[in-house]
Amino acid sequence: MKNQTEMSDEKLIQFYLHGNPAAMATLIELYKDRIYSSIFSMVQDKFIAEDIFKEVFITIINNLMAGKGAEDSFLQWATQIAHQLCIEHTRKVKLSFLVDTEKENIAVANPVNFSVPVAQPEAMYYESHSKIKNMISMLPDEQREVIALNHYAGLSFKEIADIMKCSLTTALDTMKFGLNNLKKLMNEKEIVLR
């Protein structure tokens, strides 16, 4: 019998549906880093990302038990579910924020502080990476999502277009606008990457 990590996603799903829970554990292990990274890049909070990550696989299991499965690749399906859950979370947070702000009639500011102590060479990489992530979080939702799905989840633009339910051209244009806006933000904030 083949090692489970050498099996196709479809075979692993079939094994899982026939009572082998280790098959789902294998799928999670295969894709956890890419899915979690894409979630985290959208929500920018470790605990929320972990909750959404768990919810992704609960949703997948519920769908599989209901006889629904991936139309395309398992990773694309899981990433699409993650994307939708992130959008739902963002909408809830924005709605909650608006309600809280109206109730308390307060002004909210999000200062961006990029001052960091002098770093050693290895730490410079992480500092630059952190600066980029901060800049990405300032982009409009669609641009941030396309960059996250491409860079962190490693999805192709065709897969991104399918997930976002837009044309390939729109996905590419959104990436182009996102990268241009990222460059402008970096120039405005005078961010220099080392």
Protein architecture, described:
Helix content is 73%, strand content 0%. By secondary structure, the protein is mostly helical. The chain has two domains: 1-106, Rna Polymerase Sigma Factor, Chain: A (Orthogonal Bundle), CATH 1.10.1740; 109-194, Arc Repressor Mutant, subunit A (Orthogonal Bundle). It has eight helices and no strands.
Question: In a few lines, what is going on in this structure?
Answer:
The chain is mostly helical. The protein has helices at residues 9-17, 21-43, 46-65, 74-104, 121-137, 141-152, 157-164, 168-188.
Sum up the structure in keywords.
single chain; 194 residues; Rna Polymerase Sigma Factor, Chain: A; Arc Repressor Mutant, subunit A; 73% helix; 0% strand
- The mean pLDDT is 77
What fold name stands as the CATH topology of the largest domain?
Rna Polymerase Sigma Factor, Chain: A
Under CATH, the homologous superfamily of the largest domain reads: RNA polymerase sigma factor, region 2, helix turn helix motif
Strand content: under 5%
SSE run: HHHHHHHH
Number of domains: 2
How far is the first residue's CA from the last residue's CA?
49 Å
**Cα shape:** elongated
Second rung of CATH, namely the architecture of the largest domain: Orthogonal Bundle
- Strand-pairing-aware structural class: mainly alpha
CATH class of the largest domain: Mainly Alpha
Largest sheet: none
Low-pLDDT segments: 98-122
Radius of gyration: 19 Å
Number of helices: 8
Overall number of strands: 0
* Helical residue percent band: over 70%
